[in-house]
């Protein structure tokens, strides 16, 4: 599995990373690398701190190129959990002065070495990295273009992005309470890079499963209360959530959970009919059902309460920090 994240803003990326590490520790998933799509100088250290706490100390981490003037998050946002985890927990970027890899080169190297159709790509952030991978040229790493590498080596893309209708009654109630107009809603990951998002939706050459805004409208995090106070994810959720409730919506954790569970359908989720997905210049989502389409979106099969219970069950498994 390859994970691409914009970690550093919302805390649900941290929860997703915890869930993935737990599946890795069960032997149910192999994490090949984590790429960062956000312009955040602390992201790589946050990722390494969480992975190390869960006993995974050698995960490759890459980041997109950016300058100090392009940082996506405000100083106030970075103070919530990015800086505290970067400076407060063991990681090779703060403690050993290492640098993350250039993310597109890293992805190309991993895909070049992978078996055909063996990699599941999971995107829980902005889509600039995936767009740049698709548009990468043949080079010293591989004679294949990025699109050719993806087509040959990736089996499925699971992408947290977009907003899909119709919603079920439980989701409609939550959206109404939030005061959102879902018809005009531009989901955050997509609207940050709308042209890149459109390119990935229309040109990514494998099966795609989209986890829409509506699919993440269940809160998780209370499972972390059972973990040590030294758990970096518990620290991140406590600092991010109101009153330290540890409860936050689960867009990214659900995407990772679905990717790790795999399969068309299971107890918690099912998939829509096949079709095509596109985004406009503002980031609004359009889905057109078609038998020849390569895209589907995730649908709740169970209640939000039961989905949250599964997520918190996984989050309650504490890490195994290295000695």
Topology:
Blueprint: E1 2-5, H1 12-25, E2 33-36, H2 43-53, E3 60-63, H3 75-88, E4 101-102, H4 103-113, E5 119-124, H5 128-134, H6 146-153, E6 154-160, H7 169-178, H8 188-192, H9 194-203, E7 207-211, E8 219-220, H10 232-240, E9 248-249, H11 251-261, E10 269-271, E11 275-279, E12 285-289, E13 295-300, H12 304-315
Parallel strand pairs: 1-2, 1-5, 2-3, 3-4, 5-6, 6-7, 7-13
Antiparallel strand pairs: 8-9, 10-13, 11-12
The rounded Rg comes to 18 Å
Largest sheet data: 9 strands, mixed
Provide the CATH architecture: Alpha-Beta Complex
Strand content: 15-25%
How is this structure best described in words?
The structure is a single chain. Helix 1 packs parallel to helix 11 (251-261), helix 2 (43-53) crosses helix 3 (75-88) and helix 3 packs antiparallel against helix 10. The chain has a single domain (2-315), classed as Inosine-uridine Nucleoside N-ribohydrolase, Chain A, CATH 3.90.245. By secondary structure, it is an alpha/beta fold. The longest helix is centred in the first third of the chain and has 14 residues, at 12-25. It contains twelve helices and 13 strands. 38% of the residues lie in helices and 17% in strands. Strands 4-3-2-1-5-6-7-13-10 form a nine-stranded mixed sheet, sandwiched between helices. A two-stranded antiparallel ribbon has the order 8-9.
